[in-house]
Structures are given as structure tokens and as C-alpha cells.
Design goal:
The protein is mainly α and 101 residues long. It is built from three helices and no strands. It is elongated, with a radius of gyration of 26 Å. The N and C termini lie far apart (61 Å).
């Protein structure tokens, strides 16, 4: 019984000390991540990567659409057309309120 009690007390003490140290380290990591995310070089690189991703997706879409052709259901094709028109008009948002950035 004494060993069980010692184990439980040690476990509780380790948990309390670990959570305090863990929270401080978490706050340090969060602060560092925020600083990196706000760095202009990182933001420019992320935007460049996003732009290249959109270009690649456009090329992939055209390659797939040439091969798939008329095998896509009309409802899907109509949805794609409406999304393209909406994005071409400059709204840039989607059904969930997010932007295209």
C-alpha cells in the first residue's frame, strides 16, 4: 500500500510540475511561431508558394479536363463553371467565407 501511495503522490507531483513547465514552453513556442508568421520574408515566401500552387492546380485541371472530357456529370460541370465565373469576377471568396489567398 505504501508503494502505491508513493507512486500516486509522485505521479501527481510530476503532473503538476510538468504542466507548469509545459505551459511555459508552450507559450514560448507560440510566441516564436507568431514572430515567424509575421516576418515579411516568410509571408512573401508563403504567398509565392500559394501562387505557384494555384498555377499548378490550374494546369492539372486542364490536363484532367482534356482526358475526362464529357464523362463529368452535368451538375459537377455546372458547379465548376459557376465557381470559375465568380472567381473571374473578382469576388475571390467561397461558400464558407474564406478567401482565395
Amino acid at each position: 500500500m505504501r508503494y502505491k501511495l508513493t507512486f500516486v503522490v509522485g505521479l501527481a507531483l510530476g503532473y503538476v510540475l510538468g504542466t507548469r513547465a509545459g505551459r511555459e514552453r508552450y507559450e514560448q513556442l507560440k510566441k516564436s511561431a507568431r514572430q515567424v508568421a509575421q516576418n515579411p520574408a516568410v509571408r512573401n515566401t508563403a504567398e509565392s508558394a500559394a501562387q505557384q500552387g494555384r498555377q499548378f492546380a490550374g494546369k492539372a485541371y486542364h490536363a484532367v479536363s482534356e482526358k475526362v472530357g464529357d464523362r463529368v456529370p452535368d451538375s459537377v460541370a455546372e458547379r465548376v463553371r459557376s465557381l470559375r465565373e465568380r472567381n473571374a469576377n473578382g469576388t475571390g471568396g467561397d461558400d464558407w467565407g474564406t478567401s482565395n489567398t
